[in-house]
Design goal:
heterodimer, A: about 90 residues, mainly alpha, Arc Repressor Mutant, subunit A, two-stranded antiparallel sheet, 2 strands, about 40% helix, B: alpha+beta, Ubiquitin-like (UB roll), 2 domains, two-stranded antiparallel ribbon, 9 strands, about 10% helix, elongated
Chain lengths: ~90, ~140
Amino acid sequence: MIICRCEEVTLEDIRDTFHTYKCSAREVKLRTRAGMGYCGGRTCRPAVDAVLEEVTGEKPGDDLPLKVQPPVRPVSLSVLGGDGDHA
Amino acid sequence: MRNRRIEEHPVLGSLRNRKAVSFTFDGKTCEGREGDTIASALLAHGIRQLRVHEESGRPRGIYCNIGHCFECRVTVDGKAGVRACMTEIREGMAVESGKVLPSPLNSSVFEADEMPRTYAEFAGKQKGDNKKEAPDA
């Protein structure tokens, strides 16, 4: 079952990574890249959090939080300023 | 090209009188109607694959269709990362699908000792030119 579509991470990948490396929820996320793709985890974040909590037993918000920086949507740098020309 | 457009809608009524708009998808000319999104115009032609995953090459298309997930992103008139489900077609618009990107540091493709050191070397290996190093540009 696909959990994160942007990075093509399956439930099996997350389980395997946890069992192989015996690591924290944050490390599982960094190793598999679940929730770190183009959409910024806005699509799969609840699923990733729920799976990691179930697999690792860590609740989000423990010592090493699964850092969430939600943008409204991904935008290009030119949206933030300038017209894309090299000034 | 097959047309799967809904012309008679049970709620919206007849949808036959909207102006035709033509655009290109990967160089192929497609016709949609005014007010169509890129995704809906292509869906009407039976085109569901809008891009492939940048690394694995597996097909991607409409997923959420409300502008949330960016699964349908395409390149429009040279601008990458445009959501096909949220962008209305315009006359003459050039839409390009998402392609597989090079992964020169993927160790499953190359043995560690033959990893390319420059992009030119990588491009040479992609073409099967393993004997000679491509000159640096």
